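Example 1011.
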Amino acid sequence: MSVSRRGFIKLLGAGTAAMGLSRLGIDLSPTQAYAAGLKIEGAKESISICPFCSCCCNVLVHAKDGKIISVEGDPDYPVSGGGLCAKGASLKSLHNSPERLTKPLYRAPGATKWVEKDWDWMMERIAGRIKDQRDKDFKAKNASGAVVNRLESVFHLGSSQVSNEEAAVLHQMIRAFGIVHFDHQARICHSPSVPALAECFGRGAMTNHYSDLANSDAVLIMGSNCAEHHPMTFRWINMAKEKGAVVVHVDPKFSRTSARSTFHVPIRSGTDIAMLGGMIKYILEKKLFFEEFVVNYTNASFLVGEKYSFKDGMFAGFDAAKGKYDKSAWAFEKDDKGMVKRDKTLKHPRCVINVMREHYSRYDLDKVSSVTGVSKADLLKVYEAYCATGKPDKAGAFVYALGWTQHSVGVQNIRASGLIQQLLGNVGNAGGGIAALRGEPNVQGTTDHALLYGYLPGYHNTPTANYQTLGDYLRAYTPKSADPMSVNWWQNRPKYFTSLLKSWYGDNATKENDFGYSWVPKMDPGEDYSHLYIFDRMYKDQIKGGLCFGHNPCQSIPNSNKVRKAWDKLDWLVIGEVFHNETTDNWRRPGVDPKKVKTEVFLLPSAYRAEKAGTVSNSGRWQMWHYKCAEPLGKSRSMGEMFVEVMNRVRDLYLKEGGTFPEPITKADYPKTFDAEAVARRVNGFFTRDVEIGGKLYKKGQLVPGFANLKDDGSTSSTCWVYCGGYTEEAGNLSKRRDLTQTPMQAKIHLFPKFAWVWPMDRRILYNRASVDLNGKPYNPEKAVIEWKDGKWVGDVPDGGQPPMAMKGGVYPFIMQTEGHSQFFGPGREDGPFPEHYEPAETPLKVNPFSGQMHNPVMKVIKSDMDQLAKNGDPRFPIVLTTYSLTEHWCSGSETRNGPALLEAEPQQYVEMSHELAKEKGVKNGEVVIVESLRGKTQAVAMVTVRVKPFTIMGKTMHLVGMPFCFGWTKPKCGDTTNRVTVSVGDPNTSIPEYKACLVNVYKATKVTEL
Ligand code: SF4
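Predicted structure in complex with iron/sulfur cluster:
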């Protein structure tokens, strides 16, 4: 009899010897004797999930006498196979850290220290603060007289640290208060992924999943250092490489990812579109594209309307007064039935593929090389290696992370990879797709639950003032297609949106009152309520108080000198945290007199991941349950408990005292206490009355079996429709599944269909209908994902259950796109239908060789007396700064800087520079230097290294330096945040800041001092 490693440990270590090991049929007596001394003897074993990167490594936590005594990787988790990186390996010490916040702390206005308070006192005062501010500042109508029912003077920031269930109750509470300044870490890490991937394929998530990378024939890692920042990813990339795949790393600096790749190519930060544009030209010129795929599944054959043009860096439709494009100039041409006109011969000059060919004709090797700093030989090496996957039986995957997203062209960086994947037919197949390596621990789930101002849970646009009724809103956001072969899945939006309102307002949501639509706050159309704007308005005294949970903006938001001053201006602030950090203690930062800081701060100690239950979603959309392994340390509580108590206390106040527009709060169907299991059921959704569907009766209160059963008549509820189907009456909570069994077909492609649950509807590889031909036969039978066999699909859950395209009733494969096709030409983004190279907001160049347009013409630029931008080619700041994470510290480092082993490995702020630059500046390795920009300066130790090399850009030598973004002034006491020098400029689609490229200078520090 065989026993898994985990089962073996459990039998030995968890005090279960009485079960009789002999019944296993093996003699374990020597090991049994040894096991008696094991530290985990008598301990309770539970499964939790590492709270750092989106690999979401499952861990086995052993707790004894209420204390966590051991944490190790779970060998049954397919992604990690039991592995952990340095951060995961430090979980025990982080959970037990003496630095943990264990008691509620209060800081009175002007006070110089924290004082301990009990929960009851804190909660009562917090609820009062929220209600007072809301009653005072609530806005029923906007300047145009439209009903908006919103609260602008209070914000919420964070948190990707919470579980999906905590996110669900948090979102509901924030909207009930009417808060519109609502944002979390997704904004600053992966906000461009959703609009970019959705514009290409229909959904905004990573297309495949981690273990699928082992199926690739080529992996192009660009904008990511995954060996160090998403270490378990590399397990699968290594596997692919061992099987013969070529692995290419394109990145400004050499790293451990480069070392393990087939080859590394350095690139100047901010020039990815130039390099990828060159690849598009290369594919088209050499006819390397997968023609059958391109003709049938993409919009290559669609005719672009005659209004479209592109001249000297500008697309048609630019309105200089508004600083925006009128996107109607990018519409497709339609016939009188409303069908998009197509030319499947691809000969028409206005066919998308020909318009695209024309667009990228400027991206020749000379120009691309001179802008990127990549030699022509290296460009060809990359193009040749990757473009060999444009064959039916080959697959190539792109892997990216913040190196692509954090730019003023973040969305279009990702779009460029989407164009290449469509050309090569690398979509829907095993080993293909685009791996968006999400940043924070549950940033996938909290994006699904939309802790973001512009969305409601399940990717519904937040209503704006111009849609005053539910009917107006649904008409605007429910797409129509005249093509009978297009599934156009978003035509179901009314069902999902109505079910969300039913979930929020219960029996109070009726057809007569538009299901409570008027209680949802309305934004002003086109207004931006994201991080950069929140801090700008705070700085300008327009925001008075707020909530910040599991987020460290005073360290992690660009131009932190301004951010910190803005934070000082708040009257009150509620923070939920695990440790002190630069945000909790901003009022006592170096150089500031606390007596002059008026902010009243409520600091709530938060339970850590292994001290609470719930689900998180990894980058591959796997929704996984983690268990409560020990009680929260000290008096800390889960954030879910905090949110529910705050909301209920505010509601009690409204019921008792009355106040301004109380309905969204008093009419809310909201839990009285936080129970993750119960919330998971709400998220899935219920029937709100007895309903018969397809001859089957579903009783009121029963769980809805899947989102295809949701209705727009109020008979169903679901907090987040994409998760509907994850918790069913028959199978229970599917996120708890641990079944590793596979069919031979699934085993071949590392598909684990019964482990946990995946949205949507347990489909592991999105767009998998594009991996088969028109008759449903896999393009690559060796690595088949699905196949049409004997009148049905086998393999993965098909992305749309209808027959293949050539069969009766067949449909196009991209079911989320209005016209059923993936999109080269994307008419929905703010900055153009094709990616175009523009220089970063701060650039060492004086001209852009691709056009007369230097920067993204519609990028978001924050303007204030503290937001200066260096001129193009400013000689005072000639060096490009890029920023990055480290294996040992996560994001702002506010948790990991409390891990002694992690801090020992990476103890201080540093700046990587080439030997050539160091020589120029007279700096030696290990010396302290000042890094300065127009926004400020910061101090770092010089790391003089061959990992960074000078670039030759347009014939001149240019330098790049790199700094980690995880350090801050609270600890260790050697170096503050890199964000003291970064810029408040954002991508026009999502306002993600341009962390990855700004201009600095570097010089030797004259004295070693804290800044
Ligand atoms: S940080 Fe990521 S790779 Fe490291 S242990 Fe945690 S989940 Fe796994």
